[in-house]
Amino acid sequence: MNDTETLVMQSVRMRLRGKEAIAYIQAHGVTISLQHYYKVKGKLDKEKLSRLHEIGKYGFVDQHLERIDNLETVQELLWKNYWKVHLNRPDSALRILREIREIQPYLSAYYEATKHIIQKDNGQGSINLSSLGTTAERT
Question: What number of other Cβ atoms are within 10 A of residue 93's Cβ?
């Protein structure tokens, strides 16, 4: 995606319309007409499915690993902060423990998905990601 397409996509995500979208795009250094904005927006709309395939084909594994790494890093930092405050600030310690607990379902879902991805990559049966609300059969 070029800069204009990226800005148009961002304006769509922010639910900006017409002149608001043009103002947003111009604030980021790109000048386009309203007509050109709608042309780019239409093109992006037509390419939704192919963009999804590209993400699935090339970006999924990297994104999956990045999210696991981020969650594990956050969890590690939370534990470090917990041990710093647990004796002197029990209210803060309790809040940190709650945040650690809230991370667990996300990590579990990513670990489960990882297991299925590895099984699929090794050619073992089908992949069922029901915990993530997705089911895909191996062909």
Answer: 17
